[in-house]
């Protein structure tokens, strides 16, 4: 009754089913890892954003590499903006996916060290990207700013190529070591995305907070792949029973037809 399982068609179908099961299990495990990574990242971000602001020099110093746990922590600093040495970061988008620049302004602290402050997003000045854009001025004089601490940008982490030969005072990546060499000053490791003072009037559009990654979606995909893996043998069993039943019914019909034929004289 089940000899058809040894035919070429059914052997191939069985092999495909056997390959699908571990593949789907592995995909479910991968989604499980993504769920755990995203959940851990969301927890770190929530803790960092909810922590009490601290003076920036308690967290970073010149040459310091901002760690994963330090990222997004709110820090404060008192000093003055140095607009003469500010640069713009090319090919950055705002919340509406419009392409423009991020404004990176050195912030000179009271002890002479420099903190890089990403003041926010401004639109491009027309089709030309060679001229230095018009940038709204920051507050003059001594001011206290707050922002989310961020690590130096790299091509490996961001996927953005660090192009050379750019127009004057334009960069592709925010990197404290490069800016320290350009400025000839001590620059604190990393930079901050400014959150306070809040923008007023004609000022750069502040960068929105990082928000939460959709970890539950990965959890749902994990369950989905494992259900698919469990469904493969069940589906194969259903097909086998259906084929066996069809063959049995066909055999019974042939036997009935043979019995109904008149005997030869």
From TrEMBL:
The chain crosses the membrane at residues 219-240. InterPro entries: Surf1/Shy1, Surf1/Surf4. The keyword Transmembrane helix applies. Keywords: Cell membrane, Membrane, Transmembrane, Transmembrane helix. Pfam families: SURF1. GO terms for cellular component: plasma membrane. It is a multi-pass membrane protein. PROSITE patterns: SURF1 (PS50895). The keyword Endoplasmic reticulum does not apply. It comes from the Bacteria. It is found in: Cell membrane; Membrane. Belongs to the SURF1 family. This is SURF1-like protein. It comes from Streptomyces fuscichromogenes. The lineage of its organism: Bacteria, Bacillati, Actinomycetota, Actinomycetes, Kitasatosporales.
